[in-house]
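Incident log, structure service

09:12 report received: a user says their structure output differs between two submissions of the same chain.
09:20 pulled the input from the user's history:
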Amino acid sequence: MTQFAYIGCYTSRLRGARGRGIAVYEIDNRGAWSLRQRVEPVQENPSWLALDTERGVLHAVHGDGTSLASYRRDASSGLLTLLGQQETGPQNPHPALDPRQRNNPVHVAADPGGRYLLAANHGAGNVAVFPLDDEGLPGQPCSIWPIPGRPSPEHGYPGLSRPHEIVFDPAGKHFALPIQGRNAGNGIDMVRIYAFSAGRCVLADEVIMPQGSWPRHAKFHPDGRYFYLLSELGNRVDVFGYNPSTGALSLRQTLGSLPPGYAGESGASEIVVHPNGRFLYAANRGHDSVGAFGIDPADGTLHPVGWVPCGGKSPRFTTLSPDGRRFYSANEESDTLTEFHVDMRTGMLSETGRVIDTPSPTCIIFAPGRQSQP
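09:34 re-ran on a clean worker, output below:
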């Protein structure tokens, strides 16, 4: 059985990017990657992807832009065909915002029930909720949930905080929202947990993080009892106990995403929890590394296993293969994906020697392929 991989990218001059649209690769049973399609983007920067495998629809949000595009995925060939696009909501008029990034959807995720799609509008400071029809296509946003910041009386506008990712818990009843304060908009660094039902977001818990730490991405442990938050400028991982019934968080541990003694410039970018629940990975841009951590099954706390170079420059995104035996680093500034072997005993990573050239990669999504030819 082959696999397909869909690679999001940056394409804009603003980002200094070289990408040319979503890239579709087929991976054969020996692990070799072959480019099958490059999709002309409907707007710059198809930077984050979400796949509805059941209905065969791939969604892409356009970073720095204003739109969400949806594509039909052919299950046999893996190729994409544009179905339509939606605006992710009104642009925020706050005068402190960069006019080129007043909406800037950076993440998109479907609720586990398959009835709604949620987009994190980083520039606008809100979460947009789209209803999905029976074919999996989004309509116009049915609700928009602003993320407040501190008051900005000097501007005459309410403050806003910047959501960066939407992560549903394993039970599917709540989602986590890592939120960056940033300076423009007078925002607050925090993580929020929302209960989600019938398109409505209800705040269940909120933890204020150190100002300037910029919470970026997060993951739940597969058993639903622990939550891991990665902060970009804080270069840290915070470990929380998690109550799936109420959505409550309780801090248990804080440790650095960088190796001890490193004092150079860096920013944490991505966090991955292995589906076996035993390993966690944190990527660092600047240090250009991936840290591997073991997870204590008794309380979810972490211990460092080691750090490896990411194999390129600026690992914006990382992920595991569907079987959990390969790890991939999308190195945005070196235009490469680097493949690693996962030691299933320790969680440590080692390069396999396979490097895929693809311009300005920002996201990787895997999907089932077709039967290999004998």
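09:41 both user submissions now match this output. Likely a transient worker issue. Closing.
09:42 reviewer note: The two ends are 11 Å apart (CA to CA). DSSP finds no helices and 29 strands in the chain.
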